[in-house]
Amino acid sequence: METDYTKSLIQLGQYTLKNNIKLNGIHVLAETSGRLDQIVSNINTLYKSHKLFNDVPVIQIAGESLTWLLKPGVHKIIIPEEIVKSKTWCALIPFGNANSCVSTTGLKWNLNKTCMKFGELVSTSNTYDGHPEVTVDTNVNLVWCMGIKPLTRVES
Q1: Nearest to 39 by CA among 62, 71, 6, 68
Q2: What is the pLDDT of residues 133-142, one digit of tens each?
Q3: What is the average per-residue pLDDT within 59-79?
Q4: DSSP β-ladder status, 123-126 and 142-147
Q5: What is the distance, to the nearest Å, from the Cα of residue 140 to the centroid of all Cα atoms in its chain?
Q6: Which domains does the chain have, with CATH numbers?
């Protein structure tokens, strides 16, 4: 049984395949009302999305955050200047992976070939070191989350 979120991605995948549409990325509005079960379910759908779309990133927008899955390899994440200056939070979370080896640059608390797993270290409540680029080198799937609250502010 699939969630509505997963079902919608399956439908999108079938539609793009049938109509020979190539996607560069998918942005999903996925509000959870703060429910942990919904949050975990949405993360599970991110893990399933790579089977549906191969290398097309699926980015969840929920409340004041962006979340997406980083596959094994080296990733460059460009952080908007306003977010870097405001030192908004970010996190790397190794859902379901016990043998992670992660290195980062551009974070206040960088990782250097660090093993992360639940019951030990998870990289939450981190922020940026002042540079607009973060690199993540990982040997396993990781969830990247970042706050976007400064982007939602209305200025008069």
Answers
A1: 62
A2: 999 999 999 9
A3: 94
A4: unpaired
A5: 14
A6: 1-62 (3.40.50.10240), 64-155 (3.40.50.10240)
